[in-house]
Structure formats: structure tokens, C-alpha cells
Amino acid sequence: MTRILGIETSCDETSASVLSGSGNDVAMDSLVILSQDVHRIFGGVVPEIASRHHLTAIVPVVERALADAGVELAGLDAVAVTYAPGLVGALLVGVSFAKALAYGRGIPCVGVHHMEGHLFATALEHRDAVPPFTALLVSGGHTLLVDVPEWGRYQVLGRTRDDAAGEAFDKVAKLLGLPYPGGPHVERLAREGDPSRFRFARPMLRRNQQPADDDYYDVSFSGLKTAVLHATKQASDGDRAHVARGFHDALVETLVEKTARAVEQFGRERVVLGGGVAGNRTLAEAMRQRMRTLGAEVYAPTSRLATDNAAMIARAGLFHYERGERAPLDLNAFASMPLPGLVSA
Ligand code: KG4
Ligand code: ZN
């Protein structure tokens, strides 16, 4: 059994978590997530402020995670930390802290790619959310459709050409006068809307597309956002819920159909959702209904594990640790970086 500490500081959550176990048999002993509320004032994450907050929060957050798990520093076998992608100044706080802790304790440090972390998050709540599966990762910064034959082997099938799904939610929320981050607010408002009032085109979704077409799996949400902008200009205040519903339906149907294509092509029987937008109940329910027709099971994380957290980083880190991977002491932070373990078609 390995006991591993995970650290996540890539954006505006300072998070630490202790996991113990091996292989796919892993227990979450603690998880602390400190969300930086300050960014709400600015309607988006301010990088410099995020870094400073990580700096003041990292020590107490790690101490709390250790205390909740009932372990001392001496009880840790390894440290895993997000090193990419994300805000470099924010990432550096976690990376520097993790390296110093590992060096000071004489234990290994493992660098984790943030998006690979999201792939592992759902496995902490559902024992069957393990490969082989089709993954849809939808966050504020990324939209990725990935085939996962096994942990550590990833085939990226599609991605967004412009706005990420969460970013589209946040921008539409702004247009509708809703607070940041907008996803949950748009979801709630859309439930009250009439689906027949505003019907927006499904971006990059046409019946005659073939698997070899490069837009077969890709998505694009900036046109949809512009369509919403025009609709809000014409609509009255009482129409806001209907506009939200039109947007929500278009986005969800696009994501669901693209995922269904991947499930069919690769013959997968499991779909794993990850990233902040995976906390959207309407998306998960629509995905379940559609996948039932293909005989596939859908696994969605709870909001706590869908959004950025250190437990998923520790979980991915444990996998790499068990494979003998170790980060060098000059491990750096990177704003962007392809997923590790990429395989091509
Ligand atoms: O994964 P995450 O916590 O951070 C990033 O790595 O980006 O995702 C945050 C994003 C935000 O854009 C937020 O609006 C969106 O996830 N989000 C949602 C919901 N909850 C969070 N979007 C739609 N529906 C939700 N219920
Ligand atoms: Zn994320």
C-alpha cells in the first residue's frame, strides 16, 4: 500500500488530498479544497491574485489534509503535484512546495498533467469508472473527447476549436446577467425555459459527417455564443430562461452526440465524464439516456470531484508512481502541454 499526498494549484483552487492504496483499489483519506472567491469580483480568474492566494493557503491546506487523514508528514510515501497545464505562477506555488517537501522528507515527487487528473477523478467515486472507456473532459479551459484503452494510453479524438464548454457557459452567463462562474446558474435558469422558444444550430454536428472528417469529433462553441448574443439583444427580460434553455440544449446535444460517435466507433461500454461542466446534472442525464441506446454505462463525478481538486491529482500520481516514474528536482510548470501517453489512431 502506498500513501500519497496530492497538490493542485493550477487555477483558482488550492487543494490537497491524501490517498492510500494500490492499483484501482484506492481510498480517499482526505480532501481539502479552498476556492478563491475573490475572483468573483472581477468576473474571471486574475492570475497574479491567484498565485498570491495559493502562496498564503498552501501550508494550512496541506496541514488540514494531513490532519483529516490522520497522518504525519513521516507517514507519506510520495507527493504528486499538477505541473501543467494552467496558470504558470499558480502552478509554480504547488510545484515548488511539492519539490521542497519531497526533498526534505527524502520521498519521490511525481508530476501530474491536470487533464489526466480529471480522467482519474471519477474512479475515486465509482469502482467501475476504469478503462477501457470513452472520456469527455469538459472544463473552463478544455473540451476533450478521449478514448482510453488503459490508464496511461490516451487517444485524443476531438477538442474544441475555440471556446471550452465551461468558457461558453461562463460567457453566456455574463450575457444573461448571471454571476461568475456561470455554469450552475445557466443550468438552473435553463430548467425553467421553454425548449421550443429559441432553437440554436448544433455546432459542428451534421448527419453526413464521416469518422475521417476532422470535424467528426471536434466541437466549436463561439458561434453558439454569438447566436445567444443576438438572441439576448432581441429578447425581452422574461425570455432569459428560454434563451438559456436554447443554449443549454444545443451544447448538451452536441457533446452527447460526439461522445456517442466515439462509443460506437471504439465499441466502448463505459463513458466517463470529467471537468467542472461534468457536474452539470442535465448533461449527465442526457448522456445516460443516449448511452442506454448504445448499451453503455455513464459515470459522472459529484461536483466536488468534477471541479479542480487534489484527490484526482494524487490518484493519477499514484498510477505513475507505481510505474516507477519520478519527477526530477528541476521539474518546472508549463502553461500548456499535451497529455502524456498519447497514442494515435
Ligand atoms: O474543471 P474546472 O473546475 O476548472 C477548470 O479546470 O477550468 O471547471 C470550471 C468550469 C467553469 O467554467 C464553470 O462555469 C463550469 O466548470 N461549471 C459548470 C457547472 N459547474 C461548473 N458548467 C455547467 N454546468 C454546471 N453545473
Ligand atoms: Zn480542471
Strand content: 15-25%
Give a short account of the largest sheet. Answer: 5 strands, mixed
Terminal Cα span: 35 Å
Q: Describe the strand arrangement of the main beta sheet, using strand numbers.
A: 3-2-1-4-5
Structural class: alpha/beta
Enter the CATH topology name of the largest domain. Nucleotidyltransferase, domain 5
CATH homologous superfamily heading of the largest domain: ATPase, nucleotide binding domain
| Top CATH class of the largest domain | Alpha Beta
- What does the radius of gyration come to? 20 Å
Mean pLDDT: 96
Integer tally of domains: 2
- Return the string of H and E elements: EEEHEHEHEEEHHHHEHEHH
Count every helix, treating DSSP H or I runs of 4 or more residues as helices.
10
Kindly state the percentage of residues in helix.
40-55%
Shape: globular
Number of strands: 10
> What is the CATH architecture descriptor of the largest domain?
2-Layer Sandwich
Low-confidence stretches: none
Q: List cofactors, ions and other ligands.
A: 5'-O-[(R)-(carboxyoxy)(hydroxy)phosphoryl]adenosine, zinc ion
Summarize the structure.
With 345 residues, this protein is α/β, with parallel strands linked by helices. It has ten helices and ten strands. The protein has helices at 47-69, 88-105, 114-121, 165-175, 183-191, 222-234, 240-266, 281-292, 303-306, 310-322, and strands at residues 2-8, 13-22, 25-35, 78-84, 109-113, 133-138, 143-150, 153-159, 270-274, 297-299.
Name the descriptors.
single chain; 345 residues; alpha/beta; Nucleotidyltransferase, domain 5; 2 domains; five-stranded mixed β-sheet; 10 helices; 10 strands; binds 5'-O-[(R)-(carboxyoxy)(hydroxy)phosphoryl]adenosine; binds zinc ion
